[in-house]
């Protein structure tokens, strides 16, 4: 077999293993590497996540000369480190390292937990972003890994994964969701229920659908529920997720038939650890939106395309949607699902979630 043919066969095998796209494997490997504190490269630029770095790893990464620091635009704006060169407030920011900007100082830049307690050192010098797409891709990858969006950038080392920026931007959208398993799942008070689990080639979570009742020709009542460990499992009073989940199942049952999609979008897709960091900031007085921005994220990072793919797989392109969030309606419509009606899904507030609900109404456009 010639070399060309051999590499063709190898590529086909990789494509088969990754469920369609060879690069999905590199993205998965990179997410794993970042969590373990291993450096990766995107378009040949070295990246080491600050959160999982340590002195030895940073010394290795810096061995060819001091690396710089990469922060998200929102984190940089919080720190008042405007990017003088880009002049776009939301663009990522690259900061020049000097010897005093060590791991501890870099951690203070990355992690807002100490913002109020420790005044920032400085002065910081921002550099032109030589490669915007690499920065965007790196920050997206950190979020997919559930890490703080902040890196040492431009160092050298034995990279655990080599990626191309467009492949990172294409990853994690769950375009190829398939039904992996389905079974009858009688619930307390709702016995006519079936659970359907989905898997995709590059999605990190396993989304599930609960089908309740029997199709009767009308568009189903559908609820898109984003995972909330604290609310769904522990009954946290900080949000309204637990009561919303229970009430959605009741409403669907009463409607005769419908579907609840349980989407693995913990913390509006910033991950559990980052959501708990947001809670820590909320204890300091910041609201839900500002807490996310201080961490370096958008206030809502969710992508509802997977929900549309699940509904398609279930044969439902017209739905009645149970939500107060107009973004969910718009996102489903943009993905080709017709929302024939929005059905409000309001819960009674408690003393702990009053501010959370007010922020949803006043800053996130929820119709409460
Ligand atoms: N980042 C962050 N996520 C939160 C916070 N509180 C709840 N969440 C997450 O928010 C998601 C629930 O979404 P919400 O934005 O509260 O409500 P919604 O689903 O958009 O709107 P409705 O359909 O009207 O209920 C879940 O993934 C929760 O884990 C918080 O303070 N910070
Ligand atoms: Zn919640």
TrEMBL record:
It holds the Pfam family GTP_cyclohydro2. The active site is at 300 (proton acceptor), 302 (nucleophile). GO terms for cellular component: cytosol. Pathway: Cofactor biosynthesis; riboflavin biosynthesis; 5-amino-6-(D-ribitylamino)uracil from GTP: step 1/4. Residues 182-344 form the GTP cyclohydrolase II domain. The keyword Manganese does not apply. SUPFAM superfamilies: RibA-like. Coiled coil: none annotated. Its cofactor is Zn(2+). Signal peptide: none annotated. Binds 1 zinc ion per subunit. The keyword Membrane does not apply. GTP binds at residues 223-227, 244, 266-268, 288, 323, 328. GO terms for biological process: riboflavin biosynthetic process. Belongs to the GTP cyclohydrolase II family. In the N-terminal section; belongs to the DHBP synthase family. Catalyzes the conversion of GTP to 2,5-diamino-6-ribosylamino-4(3H)-pyrimidinone 5'-phosphate (DARP), formate and pyrophosphate. HAMAP family: RibA. This is GTP cyclohydrolase-2. It comes from Allosphingosinicella humi.
